[in-house]
Structure formats: C-alpha cells, structure tokens
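Onboarding guide, step 5: your first structure request.
Type a short instruction followed by the sequence, for example:

Predict the 3D structure of this protein.
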Amino acid sequence: MLEELTKKIQVAVSKKAAFGFNVRFDLDEGDSIYVLAQSEPIQVSSAKDPADTVFKVSNANLDAMLDGKLSPMSAYITGKMKIEGDMGKAMQLSSMFG
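The system replies with structure tokens like these:
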C-alpha cells in the first residue's frame, strides 16, 4: 500500500510547480511519505525529515483523498486527518487531491 500511495503522490505532484515548502504524510504503521517541494523537480520519498506541514492520516483515507473520493477538508473536519504545522500551507495543497 505504501508503494502505491507514494506513486499516486508522485503523479499528483509531477503536474505541479514547486510550492516552496516541504510536507510529510505520516501513515499507518509508522510509514511516511515526504514531499520535498522547495524547488523543482519535486521529490517524493519515504524520509521522515522535518516538514513545514505534517498530515497524519490512515493509508485508506489518503488513498481516498488521492482518488477524489474524500475531500481533504472533510477528512480534517471529521478527524480522519490531523494537521501539524502551517495550516495555510496545508490549504495550498488541496489542489493535489482528486
């Protein structure tokens, strides 16, 4: 599942310009997906490096967000996703989903 989610994020960010900050998705079983997006090309890895914004979300909910079946705002409001760090930067990433 981690490999599949990582590939989906790579595809999603490959269509975007660098957004000038780094984010990390903390997933089930201690896994992470790190998006280094301070400059191009955007890099995606399994690093657990510090990030400006950290999304804590289950593998299933991240998959649903990437497929457009769950909106990031809805996931946050219902507690399916927690956000640590810069909320403004988190909001900028909503276009990556769906």
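Each response can be followed by summary notes, for example: The CA atoms of residues 9 and 83 lie 17 Å apart.
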